[in-house]
Write a structure and sequence with these properties.
CATH topology of the largest domain: Nitrilase/N-carbamoyl-D-aminoacid amidohydrolase
Number of helices: 15
Helix content: 40-55%
Structural class: alpha/beta
Strand order of the largest sheet: 5-4-3-2-1-12
Strand content: 5-15%
Number of domains: 2
CATH superfamily of the largest domain: Carbon-nitrogen hydrolase
Length: 530
């Protein structure tokens, strides 16, 4: 194998002056600050423009160092990001929060190790951005069905990068943000040992061009003005944290039924227009309405009062009573419960507990989950009055495939039923709303979010929040929502951009590994000659 030339060695990041491996504290500071900046880009702080510089610092921490050191720096930078970003897990327990961060940070360690490799290649900002897409894909699959929360794209619910969602979905948004950050990192590397150059000018132009090009992403053309009036009910719940349900049976159900009666009264008084359909949140009845005559009568009374179909969120038992479904039921004022959608992506340790029998011996809290949930097996297209809505349940809004398959049925608008009562007043509700904003642009659909404790909202197909509630209050509204039917490019081509970027990431790693071995052999021969 040919030995690297002097010019090759001079271009190797590991000896690039100011960013040499000896600057361990500098690298550590860059990784930690980068993680914090990335956190600040997410709601509720929402400084989305800090995402590219955050990525830039995380990239610089790994640039030019060894794979092992880069992995540790990536792990610490990931933890600096995830500890505050996932602080909403703390109501379950600080141990659960720390454990989740510890596991998820492993993905950032792997990404950083990859960055240390691919930055040896020409055009490395592209390969770095593809690696981040691969990391987010992996987090959405492993372990236990994946945890695709706090993807870079979800910090861009309303930013200059958001239009990329209509072209390639959340993966392309993440790619664009990270590419912008990696170009900034390359600019810092080029400026460190020398003055401003023509290449530096090109890098600045590239970093500016990435967000600006989002504005030329093609979007579906105008459609005939058709709207549907949607009533949204937020009933609120007693208590907070893990004990939000309290001890009184049916209190959550009565809260939502009572607010629906309030809406019906407001309609009769002419204060609001009569809705075409009404949406209750996920788990808006804490009693199975198929089994309880009491619950069924309460729901029937509220639905008949408003006089239109209501999408009721319920936890229902299987016929043998051994398991449960998280279900959205279309409740008709004349015929009662009809079509339904069962949640397909279940929350680990929230709706089911892996290895429950074993864990219950050591962690008593796992018993709070109750019956193990079963996943549904069909899309959420549900006929309601004049439209077919696309039902998405809470956690599922983070999963590209679930939302996309529902839109592809032709369902419109999207309806996200959610129960954030355990996490009320944390950073989870605003993070989830940001996901709905991105999905609206990605699929050219209005999105209605109905939450037990907030944030309930209406997001238009351009990703703008037209109406929203506060948290921990009972509220209601009737919103007029456009019924869009045209598909975006992202809806049509599906996961193709993501798979293409995964192949790019794999190819970059494959191309970088021989260079690493060559450089290692060169270093070893120098030591022997010495």
């Amino acid at each position: 194998m040919a030995q690297p030339t002097v010019q090759d060695i001079e271009r190797t990041p590991a000896v690039s002056g100011v960013l040499s491996p000896s600057r361990a504290l500098w690298r550590l500071a860059a990784g930690l600050i980068g993680g914090v900046l990335l956190f600040l880009a997410f709601p509720p702080i929402d400084l989305w423009f800090l995402a590219p510089p955050g990525v830039a610092l995380l990239t610089l921490a790994a640039y030019g160092t060894g794979v092992r050191r880069a992995a540790w720096l990536g792990y610490l930078g990931g933890a600096a990001f995830l500890l505050p970003a996932l602080s909403w897990v703390r109501p379950i327990g600080d141990d659960a929060w720390v454990l989740l961060v510890a596991v998820e940070s492993l993905f950032f360690a792997a990404t950083s190790a990859g960055v240390a490799l691919v930055t040896r290649l020409r055009g490395w900002p592209l390969w770095v951005a593809a690696l981040w897409v691969a990391q987010e894909w992996a987090r959405g699959v492993f372990p236990l069905g994946g945890f695709p929360w706090v993807r870079v794209a979800f910090s861009q619910g309303g930013s200059v990068f958001t239009p990329y969602a209509a072209l390639g979905g959340a993966p392309l948004v993440s790619f664009a943000v990270v590419l912008c950050g990696a170009l900034l990192a390359m600019l810092a590397v080029r400026l460190a040992p020398r003055r401003w150059t023509r290449q530096a000018t090109l890098l600045v132009a590239g970093a500016l061009a990435v967000p600006l090009l989002a504005y030329v992403v093609p979007r579906p053309g105008a459609e005939a003005a058709r709207t549907v009036r949607v009533g949204v009910i937020q009933g609120d719940v007693p208590g907070t944290g893990m004990g939000f349900l309290g001890d009184e049976p049916a209190v959550v159900l009565r809260n939502h039924a009572g607010k629906t009666h309030d809406l019906a009264l407001a309609v009769r008084q002419g204060k609001v227009e009569k809705p075409d359909i009404v949406v209750w949140p996920e788990n808006s009845t804490d009693i199975d309405p198929y089994r309880s005559t009491y619950a069924r009568e309460i729901i029937d009374g509220a639905v008949r009062d408003i006089g239109v179909p209501v999408l009721v969120g319920a936890v229902v038992r299987t016929p043998d009573g051994q398991h449960r479904y998280t279900r959205g039921i279309v409740w008709d004022p004349s015929t009662g419960p009809g079509a339904y959608y069962d949640k397909r992506k279940l929350v680990p340790f929230g709706e089911f507990v892996p290895f429950k029998d074993l864990l219950a011996k050591f962690i008593a809290r796992v018993e709070l989950v109750g019956l193990q949930s079963l996943a549904g097996d069909r899309d959420g297209d549900l006929k309601m009055g004049p439209v077919t809505v696309g039902a998405v349940e809470c956690y599922e809004v983070a999963f590209d495939g679930v939302v996309r398959s529902t839109v592809r049925t032709g369902a419109t608008p999207l309806v996200v039923q959610t129960n954030n009562a355990t996490y009320a007043l944390t950073n989870l509700p605003p993070q989830q709303l940001a996901m709905s904003r991105l999905r609206a642009v990605e699929h050219n659909r209005a999105v209605i979010t109905a939450a037990t404790t907030g944030i309930s909202a209406y997001v238009d197909p351009d990703g703008r929040v037209r109406w929203r509630t506060a948290e921990r209050v009972a509220d209601m509204a009737v919103v007029s929502v456009p019924v869009r039917t045209k598909k975006t490019i992202a809806t049509r081509i599906g996961a193709a951009p993501e798979w293409a970027l995964l192949l790019v990431a794999a190819g970059a790693l494959a191309g970088a590994l021989p260079r690493r071995r060559t450089a290692a052999q060169h270093d070893k021969s120098e030591e022997e000659d010495g």
